């Protein structure tokens, strides 16, 4: 995500403050959505996903505290079950409430930051950029698999050894990804074939050994190390000490 092309939802019933925020954000290149109550925000969030929410607490209808609980999946029904699935969007509370207890409660309740009204626009913009970058890094980490000095970026379908990209076939990539997901675990040939069948239907039991051998050589050519161990008569595993 390019931080400056992010979309931000402003949830505030104060039209003047909302207009100030919208103008400031749009000057920075952000897209802006508006909601004037917690209920309206929930409806909007059911239809679209912004990159960040600026949330006032004193809202008509559904309060900011109640909305935050729903966004973080902490709203609980009478039987103790969750009443809402969490919406994975960072929330900055922007409120006139200044008590430390309020701030602590909101941060523990799922907010990533708390800004007190009246606020300096420049400071708020800096906090927004910081939280967006944190969310971007979190997303990137979720896309990454790592075992020792082997790193895989799933969305790009790329693999690296000691920060050097490895040129892999589709089948080799699927095998390595599965091994990296389960380092040190012996994967039988049947499990390997079954797990990668959706990505590589051309891989058969007779060709699997060749694919693994080619993969092992490509990894070794970069680092001089053998990462994949054959377990005789069973299958293969990624060495746990990688």
Strand order within the widest beta sheet: 2-1-3-4-5
Major sheet size, sense and barrel closure: 5 strands, parallel
Q: How many domains in all? A: 2
What do we call the CATH topology of the largest domain? Rossmann fold
Spell the H/E element sequence: EHEHEHEHEHEEEEHEHHEE
- Discrete helix count: 8
Oligomeric state of the chains present here: single chain
Mean pLDDT: 84
Strand element count: 12
Q: How many angstroms does the end-to-end distance come to?
A: 31 Å
- Give the DSSP E fraction (strand runs of 2 or more residues): 15-25%
CATH class placement of the largest domain: Alpha Beta
Shape: elongated
In angstroms, what is the radius of gyration? 24 Å
Tell me roughly what share of residues is in helical segments.
40-55%
CATH superfamily name of the largest domain? Response regulator
Short description:
With 242 residues, the protein is of the alpha/beta class. It has helices at residues 15-27, 38-45, 64-71, 100-108, 121-143, 170-181, 189-196, 205-223; strands at 7-11, 31-35, 52-55, 91-95, 113-116, 144-147, 150-153, 158-161, 164-166, 187-188, 228-231, 235-238. Strand 3, helix 3 and strand 4 form a beta-alpha-beta unit.
């Amino acid at each position: 995500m390019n931080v400056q092309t992010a979309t931000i939802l402003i949830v505030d019933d104060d039209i003047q403050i909302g207009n100030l925020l919208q103008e400031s954000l749009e000057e920075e290149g952000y897209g802006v959505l508006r909601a004037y109550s917690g209920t309206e925000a929930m409806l909007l969030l059911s239809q679209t996903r912004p990159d960040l929410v600026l949330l006032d607490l004193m809202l008509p209808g559904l309060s900011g505290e109640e909305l935050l609980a729903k966004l973080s999946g902490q709203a609980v029904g009478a039987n103790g079950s969750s009443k809402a699935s969490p919406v994975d969007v960072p929330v900055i509370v922007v409120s006139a409430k200044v008590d430390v207890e309020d701030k602590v409660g909101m941060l523990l309740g799922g907010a990533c930051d708390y800004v007190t009204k009246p606020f300096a626009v420049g400071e708020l913009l800096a906090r927004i950029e910081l939280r967006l970058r944190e969310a971007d890094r979190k997303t990137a980490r979720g896309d990454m698999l790592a075992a020792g000095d082997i790193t895989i970026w799933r969305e790009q379908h790329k693999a690296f050894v000691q920060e050097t990209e490895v040129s892999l076939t589709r089948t080799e990539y699927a095998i390595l990804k599965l091994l990296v997901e389960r380092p040190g675990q012996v994967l039988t040939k049947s499990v390997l074939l079954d797990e990668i069948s959706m990505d590589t239907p051309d891989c058969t039991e007779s060709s699997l050994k060749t694919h693994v051998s080619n993969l092992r050589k490509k990894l070794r050519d970069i680092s001089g190390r053998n990462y994949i161990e054959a377990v005789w008569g069973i299958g293969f595993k990624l060495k746990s000490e990688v």
